Amino acid sequence: MSTVHRLTPVPPGPPDPPSRVWYASYGSNMDADRLRCYLAGGRPSGSARTHPGCRNPSDPERSGPIELPGTLYFAGESPLWTGGRAFYDPGAEGRVWARAHLITAEQFSDIAAQEMYRDPGDDLDLRTALARGRDSLGPGRYETVVCPGFLGGLPVLTFTSPGRCTDVAWTRPSAVYLRHLASGLLAAGCWSAPAVARYLSRAPGAAGSWTPEEIAGLMAPEV
User: Fold this and answer.
1) pTM to 2 decimals?
2) What angle do CA 85, 154, 136 make, to 5 degrees?
């Protein structure tokens, strides 16, 4: 059983540009096969989009379970999966289960670009996110970079929408999308299948639309 990593506060003083970061995925990129399509290029199972990949297609140095302060919720309409996308509200009450991938800052920039429907190839300036805990790169989905803390001396970074979970209409996520989230959480080796099913079923957007039993059924092996 893996141990959930705990964040340490952002250190004071001007941030140094990191060469490696922990990318905290709370959505479908928790699934290693899904993440690999962002790294090396390709189309993940059940998706309608092919990704160009990163300049550096290497797999993460390592990955592990992590908890973030805040709330997971589903909103909008994904053209890749249909149904709601996963977003992270770091200012809300609660805990978000996530998977931290140790990658290069360049890879994080390229993954973020693909999530923003931009062409990868430009390095993000992470100084504001590191110094203030967040930085808005635009008004759209996944265009807000968040640094909720550090892990082992390296920054933990993720991206989400600029608003609060209470500011938007919640949307039911699709079965194929939830399956990627559940697969990634189970692979982290920290949470049981029943716990994962309960966790996802309680997230705004899924709550009232998916029961824990239905989500558990998505995790059942195909025969």
Assistant:
1) 0.93
2) 45
